[in-house]
Amino acid sequence: MKNIHIKILMVIFSLMIWSPTTTEAKQQTEIPEINIQDNFNGDRTPSLDGKWSYFEGIVTPEQIKYNWEKGAVVNVPIKFKDLLGSNDGTATFATYINIPSSKVGKMLAINIPYEYSAYRFYVDGYFETSVGEVGNNREMHKSEVAPSIVYFTPKSTKVFLTMQISNFDLVRGGFVEKIYIGDAEDVVHASSTEVFWNSFLIGCIMIIGIFTISIGIYKGYGKVFLIFGLFCMSIASRALFGVPFVYAKLWPDYPWEWAMKLEYFFTCLATYFFVYLIYLISNGYFKKWIFVIISVIIWLLSTVILAAKPEVFQSVFFTVYTIALPIFLYSAWILCKSVKAKNSLAISNGIGVIIVFIAVIIDFFNGLGWTNLPPLSFFATALYVLIQLIFLSRQFAKEVTGRIRLNGKLQELNSNLDEKIYLRTKELEEANEKLQHVANRDALTGIYNRQYFNEFMANTFVEANTFNICSVEFPHLL
Fold first, then answer.
1. Region 81-87: what's the mean pLDDT?
2. Which of 385, 411, 435 is the last residue of a domain?
3. Domain boundary among 178, 210, 236
4. Sign of the dihedral through C-alpha 236, 259, 271, 374
């Protein structure tokens, strides 16, 4: 059984370090076209994936029109690693798109969510937008990662698109992200909807984080709520600076390099609090020395991210973050042992670990350019936060209910005790009155005795200035 586990781990690690071979561009024999006439009917914002003509270096739209034979047909999205054998380089992509005749003369838009490169975009030979500075070498190039929407009015059913791209400092380069076309209103609506739902989830997770941090501040509930709240805040902050770049809507002039730094930094921070949370609820199964080593690695990586440039910390991050796999596997093993120990929180975290692990691995591969799937880690983490919140709420409700019951029993005991004290005091007062009565009267005749007379006279002398006294003695009364 142990050998099987070792083989599985070796296969997974092999997949993580494997890199696809370079894609060969086919020599162009005709001008590539993307037909989206039918797509407009079924999809309001179809993607422009398909055949594009690739040219090495920076080529203008005018040059492309007269030199199609010098290009090569490739399928977009495509990364420089597959096309050139390196993440660094410069290229120009061009294609024709066929649109419905009903769209001619109407305002259309192309949504470019982002590219991990600098780019310039042209429509029908006219410059429309640019992000960063495209250059043929590192000195001329300047990367930027930001969303952009291009608006244009087509004059015919055939539209000529050109994308110039360069990359010399990020871990990915090329025409790697999907771009979308549609009516201007539909494109803006789709983009705004994505930003809205991300903002909504960010706000919800932040509220959950603030709430659980507030609960965790009280000593009676321990660190679990506090650490979970800090984990929520880290995840929400990471999503704020990640795709679809909500921060760009809030602070349009915020530097993209610092936005990228914060995205990676909060990723590290969320990982740290996640591991810390597993450590706290593991019933002692999570070894302290392992937690310390993981913590040191994460904080050192965070320091590198804040201090270095993107071309440095990105490479370091994706190299170091290969430890995420053994961390997740170790956490899953720890949670399994905790579940056997009947730890209710271990169940929710076990489910969450599986969900987040799958999403993080997919996004990790996306970051390396091995896959081109939608980002899933934020939504998976949001689902994990919801699951964890439900279990924490149940635990909190049980604790509060238990305390309320204990307080009720204590109040009942106090009430009974007060009643008993009152009864005992009353009985004691009655007993004292009887004792006083017996002490002040003669046992045979029942009249006041000498002791009462002496006390009465002493009190009378104190209270009265003058008084008369008559003393009668009955000798031999009996």
1. 90
2. 385
3. 178
4. positive
pLDDT score of 316: 92
Q: With contact defined as beta carbons under 8 Å apart, do 283 and 344 qualify?
A: no
Amino acid identity of residue 283, one-letter, is N
Considering the domain architecture, whether residues 299 and 207 belong to the same structural domain is answered as yes
Asked whether the whole model's pTM tops 0.70, one would answer yes
Residue 413, in any domain of the structure: no
C-alpha 303, offset from chain centre: 20
According to DSSP, the residues that pair with 359 across neighbouring strands are: none
Look up the domain containing 227 and give its range: 195-385
Cβ atoms of 100 and 40 within 8 Å: the answer is yes
- Nearest by Cα to 334 from 283, 384, 288: 283
In sequence order, what are the residues at sequence separation of 6 or more whose Cβ sits closer than 8 angstroms to the Cβ of residue 279? 286, 288, 291
Give start and end residues of each alpha helix (H) in 281-343.
288-307, 310-320, 324-340
Which residues, in sequence order, are CB contacts of 138 under 8 Å at separation 6+? 88, 168, 169
Distance of CA 227 to the CA centre of its chain: 12
What one-letter code names the amino acid at 86?
A: S
302 in the same domain as 217: yes
What is the 3-class SS of 55-95, one letter each residue? EECCCCHHHHHHCHHHCEEEEECEEHHHHCCCCCEEEEEEE
Whole-number pLDDT of residue 22: 45
Please provide residue 244's backbone torsions phi and psi, each rounded to the nearest 5 degrees: -95, 35
- Asked if residue 375 and residue 231 are part of one domain, the reply reads yes
Rounded CA separation 148/409 (Å): 64
* CB neighbours of residue 62 within 10 Å: 11
Residue type, 236: A
Q: Give the separation between CA 372 and CA 357, rounded to whole angstroms.
A: 17
Predicted confidence band at 209 (pLDDT cuts at 50, 70, 90)? Answer: confident
CA atoms of 342 and 352, how far apart (whole Å): 17
| SS3 readout for 173-203 | CEECCCCEEEEHHHHHHHHHHHHHHHHHHHH
